[in-house]
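Table S4 entry, Cytochrome P450 family 27 subfamily A member 3.
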Amino acid sequence: MQVEHRNIYGPLWKSKFGPLVVINVASAELIEQMLRQEGRHPVRTDMPHWRTYRELRSYSYGPLTELGDKWQRIRSILNPRMLKPQHVSSYSSIINPVVTDFIHKVAWIRQTKGDGIIVPDVTGELYKFAFEGICSVLFETRMGCLNENIPEETQKFIFSVGEMFRLSHIVMLFPKYTWSYLPFWKHFVAAWDHLFKVAHKLVEQKITDIQEKVKLGEPVQGAYLTHLLMSEQMSLHEILGSITELLLAGVDTTSNTISWALYHMAQEPHIQEKLNEEVNSVCPGDKVPDSSDFAKMPWLKAIVKETLRMYPVVPGNARITVDDEIVVGDYIFPKNTLFHLCHYAVSYDEQHFPQPQSFLPERWFRGQEKFKQHPFGSVPFGYGVRACLGKRVAELEMYLMLSRFIKCYEVRPDPSGTKVEPLTRTLLAPATPINLQFVERKLESGQCLCWRRLHWGKPVGPVLLVQGWPRHVQRVCRALHHIPNMRAAVYERW
């Protein structure tokens, strides 16, 4: 719709959505002009439906809902552990085990739900991966999203996130005074209730763990939540509000972007092989990539950038001018004007992106004059002090997943030939399930495709064998593989 309206009305037009009057901006030059006039405390929108829920339950606002000086204070506390490279790079050791578990889950799905190759609804599986990954970083705990049998509470938690986003844009179409009378407002509130209930439980568990370690004189260590609790810069209510909002911002970007990247690499095998060659040259054999390796992987970064150009998770961002009137194009707009920045339309502007419908990661390589872009042509994580707080963690998750997954599997398209289109449900997501074929790659002698950790009392899953292992090891693995529910001791790599 953004593209159609830009073609009809030009790069600047006014529209009305229920009680909202919006100025739409669909030009890289005009978006830059608007964003460069942001005040000291830019406002994305005042998120009235999210803020109303917090007022209803007496919860604190977080980085997505707070405004003004209070927002700046929260961001200044949350930023270092989310945006500083030295902190974010340390999360590789937390996210990599989650990637390993996802690779195992794919092997299990291929064997139990498909025909040995096809994995249905890849986006749904990657949503669980992203959820597990961000929870591991923020709450410093595993939720069981990648288990063969997902815990009931975790399933409800995942459902509540999706339900909240699904209902958000519906609620906004109605005046605030009608909300309490609408049936879907009750569902919207119930979804938020469950999110805060689980978040509160996890925060309380972490507090208990910290207190026990202090009591025993043991060192207290942790990635994110522990730091927030120990620093005492925020109240418990503020931590709960902030960490819940960070969780919401960290799931869809990762899962949808990886899904679209795999979908296009399946259609473009030469791009897939470029990435595979690059990853294997930087991380040969069974070397597991970490954050220090990605500077040497231009194809990996370009694939992620091109995917985010074609499918920005937030297809349209918003800004409210709260300080002064501003000039955009040839017009003067008064204070408190609501602008809608049409990132999706700009990403398909042929003036800045030749062949915009084509998946061309090479357009992002330096020195490509024919693909020279405008710096505001694709800004999937926003701009300035209000840019996405979880940008670096999301990028780390995407880089780790794509680099490791492509070493294990060749990705092929759905044999039915189904074309998948994007659809906006507050966020941009695949309109229909993405089904892909994952074919095990032929590996070098001694290289481990993926190793499965087996624990006492748990059934053995599919064991993946490679040539070059000792014969007695291969015989043991084959025996384990063919005995249903065989119980075995822990092993990781032979």
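The chain is about 50% helix and 10% strand.
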